Amino acid sequence: MTARRPVSHLLYLHGFRSSPQSFKARRLAAWLAAHRPAVHWHCPQLPPSPRGALRDVLAQVEAWPRETTGIVGSSLGGFYAMTVAERLGPACRAVLLNPAVNPARDLAGTIGTLQAWHSDERFEFRAEDVDALRDLTPGALTHPERYFAIIAKGDEVLDWREMTARVEPARVKLLEAGDHALSDFDDHLPNILDFLGLAHDDVRMQI
User: What are the helix (H) ranges across the chain?
Assistant: First the structure.
């Protein structure tokens, strides 16, 4: 990929039932605060409504500079990251962490009242939300060089073959084992930061 300027604005999109308190979001936020404090970081609590989530995210990044905007999305957040990146145009970079590639199918069985992972909050996931995910699904990824996916064969939630087929020919780091949460996230942080132009001499966080 042609060298680009480091991202100046970074958006993190969490997964289904998750929050800004997710392990990966907190790790990345902590590293940026310690090593790249000038980067504008935004990690919103996404509403359960896919249309509402997309509306809120697009409103937040509307004024961001496209050439130096980056997105990191995990699981359902990876699906949103693809959708947002396609709408923002070819200058926007996106990192996809075990991205959901067919969430309408995968979440159809979860309709009802659910509880968030990181709190006691309960929310409603509705049939129309499944329809919205189907409607919002982007086509083939354009300018695949601006995507970087980390996919674990050991993902216990999503099929690594489907994920890989969906994002190719984008750059893919395919892990022989791993898990859906990417519990070894720190090991992959150097690759993520390098892709976003934020690499540091010592990218391993001491937390």
Answer: 23-35, 50-61, 76-88, 103-106, 127-136, 160-167, 185-195
Q: Which fold has domain 9-195?
A: Rossmann fold (3.40.50)
Predicted TM-score (pTM) of the model is: 0.94
Show me where the domains of the chain are located: 9-195
Whether 79 and 54 have beta carbons less than 8 Å apart is answered as: no
What pLDDT digit, counting tens, does each position of 145-166 carry?
999 999 999 999 999 999 999 9
Cis omega (within 30 of 0) for bond into 90: no
149: DSSP letter: E
Q: Is 13 helix (H, G, I), strand (E, B) or coil?
A: strand
Whole-angstrom Cα Rg for the chain: 16
Distance CA(176)–CA(156), nearest Å, equals: 13
